[in-house]
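task queued by scheduler; priority normal; single chain, no ligands, no partner chains; default sampling; output format set to structure tokens
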Amino acid sequence: MLIIPSIDLRGGKCVRLVEGKLENEIVYSEDPVFVAKLFKASGVKRIHIVDIDGAFKGRFQNFEVVKKIRESIDIEVDFGGGIRNMDLLKMVIDAGIDKAVLGTAAFFKTDFLKDAIKIFGKERICVSVDEKDGNVCVSGWKEKALMKSEDFIKEIKDIGVEEIIFTQVSRDGTLKGINFERIKEVIKFSKPLRCIIAGGVASCEDLEKLKKISPYGVIIGRAIYDGLIDLKESVRKYQN
């Protein structure tokens, strides 16, 4: 299980949004590059970056910061938030980002997803499955689509996607802990996809439980910034 710390960017700063709501923003650092270096020093193999502004506006707002982070560390980086067309996707890949995370565009434009896989390869594409009340959320989590998460996962599995990030939107940034029964269902249903879990991880107890159900990885945000989870110790104890 990969331990994957998250850097959410808004206005060039490192922030967290509680339940994905802009009005519930917590600013943690004005130097995301320094934060990325600290994460790398903790022994992680991968960092998850989201352009919050990009996710809401549908176009990159913090990509210069993303490029600086990519240049400053030599571990795997995935990035999402506003990748809505092939030109933007090419920009991400050309910047050396290891995996482009597609959400809204993957949901609304399956041809775009198919082309992305064909042009850049399955290993460079990850799809974000953001769930609230069993349905997929899109457009920076502002809209809840009339499609069950299972149906969306089946659709992208048939297209050839190999990796997903499954986020429980109502728990993201809340420190409420993860709904483990739901996570079990999703991991089982999504096989053989690599399933990365996000949303609500609050303690080492959560990590202990997750380890037993074997997701490919777990994304941790606020719990690290608030000091509830020691990243270096978690990498030592839980990362494969």
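post-processing summary
- The CA atoms of residues 94 and 229 lie 34 Å apart.
- The longest strand covers residues 2-10.
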